[in-house]
Amino acid sequence: MAVEAHRLLLAGGHRQQQQQQQLASAGWPWAGADEDRCATTARPSQHHHHQQQQPQQELRLHNASCVGVLAPRVSTIAAGGQMFLGDAAESDVTFGGGGAAARQEVTAVAPAPKRRKRAEQQQTPPVFQVCAADDVAAQFQQHIVDVNRLVFQQTANMWAALTELRRRQARQVVAAVEAAAATRLRAREEEVQRTARINGTLEERARSLYVEAQLWRDLARANEATANELRAELQQALDDQRTRGAPGAGADADDAGSCCRGGEDGGTGTSLARTCAVCGLSAADVLLLPCRHLCACAPCAGAARACPACGCAKNGSVCVNFS
């Protein structure tokens, strides 16, 4: 039984060594005996293919005879050359006749598989880490591309918005300038129209004044012609009266009576002819028209409506200067 147990232990150790060599040839860092280096690195090292695995420590069996029956569980070899027994309580194999010492040795080495399992669970295969690094790099590159595209789009949108805002402001400025110019032009047009209306009114007034001036000029000319004619007739009458002598005073009394009332003596006829027929105080120096009687003074001729000598309606008068 002891021989069979020894053979099984040797066979298990040889199989574990083959597995470690296969893992080392595959590039796994934890396949070797350097557990500290395997814990710090995550990528497979190339020099593992050239390094030789350290030989496992040979199991030193006690020279004493082993008593017991081989248990169903076999021992396992830990990394670094340590051997662990499956369960010392269930195994009946003793080495060197010392069962208590074997149990103590197995009990002292028992927590090693738990640490190994925990380390194996914490360590990630390098292939997956490389794939994850490549994925992270690809995602980071895609993220950079997306950010650049987003920045470009936002920049384009911002420039488009600024251009539209500038155009809108330009249109507003142009509209404001056009409105101000239109208002000023409208005011100017209204002022021009008002000035044109005033000019038209003034032109009409000027034409009417010109026509009125023409009428007054024609009337003045007519009055001047009438005055000249009357002056000539008066001068002729005076000349005729002078040419008549004193012997003809009786005949002249009738003519004087037509001009001033009455026929007095020849000595007083001239003085009566020159006296106003209305008031009898002032000299008669106004010729009444159209009867042409020289029988009133200036104040009485202005107040009279008809000739005081013949009673004819008066339509005008002419002042005569005898000096």
TrEMBL record:
Residues 38-58 are annotated as: Disordered. InterPro entries: Znf_RING (IPR001841), Znf_RING/FYVE/PHD (IPR013083). It comes from Zea mays (Maize). It holds the Pfam family zf-C3HC4_3. Coiled coil: none annotated. The gene is LOC100285989. Signal peptide: none annotated. Keywords: Metal-binding, Zinc, Zinc-finger. GO terms for biological process: regulation of programmed cell death. Residues 276-310 form the RING-type domain. One of its GO terms (molecular function) is ubiquitin-protein transferase activity. This is RING-type domain-containing protein. It comes from the Eukaryota.
